[in-house]
Design brief:
With about 250 residues, this protein is of the alpha/beta class. The protein has helices at about 15-30, 40-50, 65-80, 105-130, 150-170, 190-195, 200-210, 220-230, and strands spanning about 10, 30-35, 55-60, 85-90, 135-140, 175-185, 240-245.
């Protein structure tokens, strides 16, 4: 306990799933936590629950918007007096073969998953330069190993990993450590929606559980532990790395 005492953190996509688990773990470890999400009701619920554990606030915003990113970062700094940690978690999935992939779907995925990190990092850097800090981006096992019928998602997560490496080299001179966390299949609302919307939900759930050699999906808190390690002093020598937490999927 207390690994993040005194840290001020902002987590995108923090109303549910992995982002929500990261926010809770960070609060438990002593951080002041702000979340941002497009889901207004989700933000309200998450902030209420987080505030029962520690200090938390939340904002409704779209990471694809430069003005929203500016507003959210500025509001976090105003609320906490500074910013020490940014977790760029907000993202969406896409399962669609290239011949069916529309321009709109391509733009939706790449803009959310890649531009949404650029907007947040760009506005966070000026507030971190003076005393350093940490940035964690959410990549994916699918940014390392491609799977069929996911060209937009594969491209976006591969882009996240290289974006992370590039800015890590630029920002370490300011004492800002940047790393990528690459989860495997995880029990989130997005995964559940994929199961529910499939033609055979029971079969799809079984396939998801059989996805990785560990033979189960991850709990969001297991992924959150990776974000904690990269953000805390325990990960002090990690710079530009991709921490893969995928139950053995990429080992094959």
């Amino acid at each position: 306990m207390g690994q993040l005492t005194g840290r001020r953190a902002l987590i995108t996509g923090g109303a549910s799933g992995i982002g929500r688990a990261i926010a809770q773990l960070f609060v438990e470890e002593g951080a002041q936590v702000a979340i941002v999400d497009v889901n207004e009701a989700g933000v309200a619920t998450a902030v209420q629950e987080l505030s029962e554990i520690g200090e938390a606030t939340g904002f409704v915003g779209d990471v694809r918007s430069m003005s929203d990113a500016d507003r959210v970062v500025s509001s976090t700094v105003e609320a906490f007096g500074g910013l020490d940690a940014l977790v760029c978690n907000a993202g969406i999935t896409s399962v669609m073969p290239i011949e069916q992939l529309s321009e709109e779907e391509w733009d939706r995925v790449l803009t959310t998953n890649v531009k949404g990190m650029f907007t947040m990092v760009k506005h966070a850097i000026p507030h971190m330069k003076e005393r350093g800090g940490t940035i964690v981006t959410l990549g994916s096992e699918m940014g390392i190993v491609a799977v069929p019928e996911s060209p937009a998602y594969n491209a976006s997560k591969g882009g996240v990993i290289m974006f992370t490496k590039s800015i890590a080299l630029d920002l370490i001179r300011y004492g800002i450590r940047v790393n990528s966390l690459c989860p495997g299949v995880t029990r989130t609302p997005l995964l559940q929606a994929e199961i529910d919307n499939s033609l055979d939900p029971e079969r799809t759930a079984a396939e998801q559980a059989d996805w990785a050699p560990i033979k189960r999906v991850a709990d969001p808190r297991e992924i959150a532990q990776g974000a904690l390690w990269l953000t805390s002093d325990a990960g002090s020598f990690a710079v530009g790395s991709s921490l893969v937490v995928d139950g053995g999927f990429t080992a094959r």
